[in-house]
Amino acid sequence: MSFMATIETLLTAEEYLALPDNGCPTELVRGKVIPMNVPGFHHGELCAGVAGPLWQFAKQRQLGHVITNDSGVVTERGPDTVRGPDVSFYSYSRVPKGVSPAGYPNAVPEVAVEVRSPTDRWPKVLAKVSEYLDAGVDLVYVVDAQSRTVFAYTADQPGTPLGLGAEMTFPPPLDGLRIAVRDVFEP
Predict the structure, then answer these.
(1) In what order do the strands lie in the sheet with 111-116?
(2) How far apart, in Å, are the Cα atoms of 61 and each of 88, 134, 168?
(3) Which residues form the domain of 65?
(4) Which residues in the chain belong to E strands, given as ranges?
(5) Whose CA is closest to 30, among 125, 136, 127?
(6) Does residue 128 lie in a domain region?
(7) pTM given for the model
(8) Which residue blocks in 63-180 are alpha helix, DSSP H?
(9) Among the four 51, 54, 115, 160, which has the fewest Cβ within 10 Å?
(10) Distance (Å, rounded) from C-alpha 156 to C-alpha 23?
(11) CATH code assigned at 87
């Protein structure tokens, strides 16, 4: 009886970035390329409900970059993981003004926002939240369309549910920004 060993090649973040676009969204998880579904219309609407006011606030005050469309964030090295938050904010202290990295920045955002799709299972969503926080993201919001609730996570605070009557608040330098949860779900 012979045994054949399978050697799996794990990709680095840089190798992953250099892959050709196959037309299917993916993330890199511990060196492995993981396919994802293309989100639907409502998902995009919820992303815009957060990104719009965040972008306007940051731009008016010259605070930093607001990024959308699952732009990559390296959350782990060796093996590498690259996640794509739906919305993220990088202050100019983390990514200087006028700098737009061609690849992934050498910093993580202060804020990451994930919109939970109907096919997303909570254990996987929470694992992603933990990765962001462990990498140094200050605040992670999870927007859950099914319950019409936004959950706020920090390294010191487990998920705090914010219902339709609550407001999303943000850490410095975004202090002062408030987004009504109702406005995210009812644009």
Answers:
(1) 64-68, 87-91, 111-116, 139-144, 149-154, 157-162
(2) 17, 28, 18
(3) 39-185
(4) 26-29, 32-35, 64-68, 73-76, 81-83, 87-91, 111-116, 139-144, 149-154, 157-162, 167-169, 178-180
(5) 127
(6) yes
(7) 0.90
(8) 122-135
(9) 160
(10) 38
(11) 3.90.1570.10
- Cβ 172 vs Cβ 57: under 8 Å: no
Residue 27 within a domain: no
6-20 mean pLDDT: 85
pLDDT higher than 60, residue 1:
no
The number of domains in the chain is: 1
Residue bearing tokens 């406005």:
183
User: pLDDT band at 24, cuts 50/70/90?
Assistant: confident
Residue 56: in which H helix or E strand, if any? helix 41-61
Domain-embedded: residue 125: yes
Q: Which residues contact 67 (CB under 8 A, 6 or more apart)?
A: 85, 87, 88, 89, 90, 109
pLDDT in tens, 90-128: 999 999 999 899 899 999 999 999 999 888 899 999 999
